[in-house]
Amino acid sequence: MLQELLAGSLEDARARRELKPYARLEAEALARPAALDALEALAPADHIKVIAEVKRASPSRGDLADIPEPQALAAQYESGGASVVSVLTEERKFKGSLADLEAVRKAVSIPILRKDFIGDEYQVLEARASGADLVLLIVAALPQETLQRLHTLIRELGMTPLVEAHSADEVARSVDLGAQLIGVNARDLSTFELDRDLFGRVADQIPAGVIRVAESAVLDVSDVERYRAAGADAVLVGEALVTNDPIATLSSYLSV
Ligand SMILES: O=P(O)(O)OC[C@@H](O)[C@@H](O)c1c[nH]c2ccccc12
């Protein structure tokens, strides 16, 4: 499933490239105001931080919420105290788009993440041209050389890579990249199975000074408490925020 999702996102990007060649996109990306400092926004604090996700649907959970105006939801996330907004731009299964990212960019002044299946330079430039400050890199999806190349490009463009791992081995590969922001996804993107204890098992492998994000499977405040106790600096939350009152839900999480 993961390779299928990656292939779909790459194919969609290739179609957009027919309309906008690399050099033109690069010029747009470089003309953007500088990216916001996501490492500062997510720096360890005396409370847990939240990356709040704009998420309409997923292959494992189906339709979650309509979200006709992603910018309105993102503005609620910001006023509710989120540190970063994650915007799914994958079109086929998650029903997102780059237009969502652009709309959210106009509505908030906190850093925003392009959440997609990224596998080439063109997609990274698209992220910057659309106003992203962070770009997701999924270790399981790519060979190490490709990860390293994309990791470098993201940083050269002033953005922050969020490197996502789903095993001890993938955490080791993330550390090898020099990642300063590592996410441990409780959901296996090949089988969609949840492993709620994975973060706790691998957190110690992440060196001091690297920001630790626990991703997925936060359904209530007790899940946030569990991740915090295991050493998470931040949690990445989608479903619980789009299916409940976002402001009230965020405020309960931020008390942890
Ligand atoms: O809706 P949840 O269980 O709170 O999960 C959010 C986020 O972690 C999840 O959307 C996610 C994590 N990594 C991904 C990679 C691609 C697509 C989606 C994801």
Can you walk through the features of this model?
GO terms for molecular function: indole-3-glycerol-phosphate synthase activity; phosphoribosylanthranilate isomerase activity. It catalyses: 1-(2-carboxyphenylamino)-1-deoxy-D-ribulose 5-phosphate + H(+) = (1S,2R)-1-C-(indol-3-yl)glycerol 3-phosphate + CO2 + H2O. This is indole-3-glycerol-phosphate synthase. The chain has 256 residues and is an alpha/beta fold. The chain has a single domain (2-32, 39-254), classed as TIM Barrel (Alpha-Beta Barrel). The chain has twelve helices and ten strands. The chain has an eight-stranded parallel beta barrel, surrounded by six helices. Strands 2-3 form a two-stranded antiparallel sheet. Helix 10 links the parallel strand 9 and strand 10. Helix 2 packs parallel to helix 6 and helix 4 crosses helix 5 (98-107). It is globular, with a radius of gyration of 17 Å. The model has no long low-confidence stretch (mean pLDDT 97). Bound molecules: indole-3-glycerol phosphate. Indole-3-glycerol phosphate is lined by residues 53, 55, 115, 138, 164, 185, 189, 215-218, 236-240.
CATH architecture: Alpha-Beta Barrel
What is the N-to-C order of secondary-structure elements (H for helix, E for strand)? HHHEEEHEHEHEHEHEHEHEHH
CATH fourth-tier homologous superfamily: Aldolase class I
Largest sheet: 8 strands, parallel, barrel
- Mind telling me the C-alpha Rg? 17 Å
Could you say how many structural domains there are in total? 1
CATH class call: Alpha Beta
Q: State which percent range the strand residues make up.
A: 15-25%
What is the total tally of β strands? 10
* Uncertain stretches: none
Q: What is the subunit arrangement here? A: single chain
For the biggest β-sheet, the strand order reads 1-4-5-6-7-8-9-10
The average pLDDT score comes to 97
Shape type: globular
CATH topology: TIM Barrel
